[in-house]
Amino acid sequence: MNDKIKNDASDWHGARLDFKESMSYGDYLGLDRILTAQHPLSPNHNEMLFIIQHQTSELWIKLMLHELQAVRRHIREDNLPPAFKMLARVARIMDQLVHAWDVLATMTPPEYTAIRPYLGASSGFQSFQYRQLEFILGNKNAALLAVHEKSPEHHALLERELRAPSIYDEAVMLLARSGLHIDPARLAADWTRPTEADDSVKEAWLEVYRDPERHWALYELAEKLVDMETAFRFWRFRHVSTVERIIGFKTGTGGTAGVSYLRKMLDVVLFPELFALRTAL
Question: What is the dihedral of CA 256, 260, 262, 268, to 10 degrees?
Answer without folding.
Answer: -120
